[in-house]
Structure formats: structure tokens, C-alpha cells
Amino acid sequence: MEYNHLIVGAGITGCTVARHIADNMGEKVLVIDKRNHIGGNCHSQIDEETGIEVHSYGTHIFHTKERRVWDFLNRFTEFNSYRHKVVTTYKGRTFHMPVNLQTINSFFGISLKPHEVGDFIASKSAQENIINPQNLEEKAISLIGRELYEAFVKGYTLKQWECDPKELDASIITRLPFRHTYECDYFTDRYQGLPWDGYAKMFERMLDHELIETRLNSDFFELKNELPQDCRIYYSGPIDKYFNYCHGELTWRSLRFEYRVEDVPDYQGTSVMNYADIDVPYTRIHEYLHLHPERENKSKRTVTAREFSKTWKQGDEPYYPVNTVEDRNRLEFYLEEASGLDKVHFLGRLGRYKYYDMDKAVLAALEFCDGNLK
Ligand code: UDP
Fold it and tell me: What is the DSSP letter of 195?
């Protein structure tokens, strides 16, 4: 088959662009991925021992405000009605996360009413004299005060990013809301849920089109010369790798998961339990059966995964862009190189070096298609 388009990476970005081209341009698309599965880091598989769907790269909850993204994905899957709730453990006690009225009242042993929270936190953050927060630590303290910051954010963030929260961008912490009520949903987006019959099926349907061919175990850099030469390339791998790290490496965090089949029907009562203490080596424990309360668990056992954050090195899977000032400068050089290439487009979390959630990745891919692929 002759191809006009080559998609490098079968993650959520690559699958979205491939489908757009096949549907709207009626042209042939080749999708390659170096892994043995599609779906990128959103991939899930069924654990053979228990029959439970396990997210291979950590829990991925789909949530979006964007009707367009929701409608697009609903062509390939239905979603269940799961609403994400996270509990965090600190010094052996459990609290709601993100920080809400339960977290504050239980932590301080008080019983504030919602209208009293603003003044309470303001009196705490006033002691710090932070006028214009410049980094994650200052931003967090200005939002929740030092005590809550030190309990729930500092240790977790140190474990997750392995660097001083003063060196991290404030935007990382604004991913989390801070609530003056007992509302404990992690996300407030109108559209939320998990693919009814699993992420794997959703991605299979996205790529199930007569104009799309998918090749797994196919590394772009190893196969470069054997791949169709005269087509447009949509590259969703790491941008620095494409240019052979000529301006140095961008920094990433990687993750490691320790899986266990626990001999109890329910291990922790929720899908994600965070661990805020610095001396607990993992950041969180995932328990996948809670993501699908509509499914019956016949095994009466449950799968958990302890998540350990680690420094990325070449060969590891990149998960989170660290995005230090040095990274941002380096990225400028890479984007400059990229803009010099007519037929290669850099997309997705890795290709743009952006901390995209799934829905933002889909939206960015659709908007890219609007502007470039008519
Ligand atoms: N965070 C924290 N304590 C928590 C949860 C999150 O300090 O219990 C901080 C941490 O710096 C983290 C950031 O908030 O990197 C964003 O958290 P989110 O849950 O959005 O991260 P993700 O699910 O993408 O790993």
C-alpha cells in the first residue's frame, strides 16, 4: 500500500490524527509504534488471574469540558459513570484530596463552615507575605497555608518530581482545585468516565478503518529507511530524540509500578490512595477494580499497583515533562528546528513537551487537523 501519511506513535494523539485523516481526507495512513500495543500510556489490559482491567501506565481517568472531544471519543466507546475521588494518607490518617473542608477540619481538629475558610486560610498565608507566587511552593502556600502545604503537598511533590517545589512551575499545583466545601470529586468537568469496555477497545475502534494500517513493534528510528519516504510525518515521540538530542536532553519524570494481586475483595476502598509522607517510598496506590463499579469481580481478589516516581534516563518511558527554565530554553531550540521541517509535525505530550491530559491531547490534535489537514 502507498501511504500519504505516517503517524509515529499510536497513543491518543496519533490515533486521533490517523482517524481524522482517514475520515476526512480519504487518504491512506500508516501508524507505527515501537511498543507491542496501541493506546500509548492510556493502554489497559485484562489481568489474567483476576479478570480485572489494569491500566498499564497508571490510572487514566477521562474527563473533559470540551463537548467536541467528548463527541469525538463517543464515536468509539461509551463511558461509564465513574467519578474520580482521591484519598490521601498522612501520618497514618486519611483525608480528602484535593484539599477541601473535610481535609481542613479534620487536619486542624476544627469545624469551620464554608464561609469561614477564606479568612482562615488568608490569616495563615498572610504570615508568609507572598504577593505574587513565583513557583509551586509559593503558589501552594498562598492557596492553603504552610501547614497544609507541608502535610499534603511538599512530601508528595518531592517524591513525584525529586526536586525542590520552589524550582517547579506554579501551574503544576493549579491542576488541583482547593475547595471550601465537602465536595470531593477530583474533577469538575461535565463529561467524565472510563471506556465501558476498556481503553484497549476504544483505541482498536479508532484505528479500525480501511485506510489505516497499524504496525506494532516498529521503532521509527530503527526503520527510518524502510518506511514510506515521501509522506507527511506526524511524530508524537519525544521532540529532543527526533533531533538526536542535539541541544541536550529535555528532562522527564518516569514511573515504575509494583503490581500485586491482593487476597481480599477490596484493598483500599477507592481507586487511588495518595501517600503524602516523604518516608513512604511510593506516591500512590492504584486499585483498578474501583474504576468500574458496574463490573462484577468474580475473583474476589483485587489488583493494586504501587507507583514509584523516578528520574528518566534514555531508554525509560517518559511520563511527565519537568519543564524547568533550562528545559524551556532547550525546547525553544527544538521548536525552531521543528519549524524548519515542512513535512514533519510534532504533536502530543512528548512531541510538544507539554503536560497534556488526555482530553487536551485530543483537542490539540483535532485543532491541529483543523488548521493543517483539510
Ligand atoms: N499533588 C500533591 N499532593 C497530592 C496530589 C498532587 O502535592 O496528594 C501535587 C503534585 O506536585 C503533583 C501535582 O499536584 O505533581 C498534580 O497532581 P495530579 O494529580 O494532577 O497529577 P497526575 O495525576 O497527572 O500525576
Answer: B
Residue 90 falls in the annotated catalytic set: no
Separation CA 79–CA 7 (nearest Å):
26
Q: Is the pLDDT of residue 1 over 80?
A: no
| Complete edge-to-edge strand list for the sheet that includes strand 93-97 | 93-97, 86-90, 272-275, 284-287, 302-311, 252-262, 320-321
Is 214 strand, coil or helix? strand
How far apart CA 320 and CA 206 sit, in angstroms, is 25
* Averaged pLDDT score across all residues of the chain: 96
**Which of 99, 153, 257 to mutate to test ligand 1, by most ligand atoms within 8 A of the CB atom?**
153
Residues 17 and 228 sit within 8 Å (Cβ to Cβ): no
Q: For residues 303 and 117, is the Cβ–Cβ distance under 8 A?
A: no
pLDDT band at 126; cut points 50, 70, 90: confident
Prediction pTM value: 0.95
Q: 153 exposed, middle or buried (CB, 10 Å; 0-12, 13-18, 19+)? A: buried
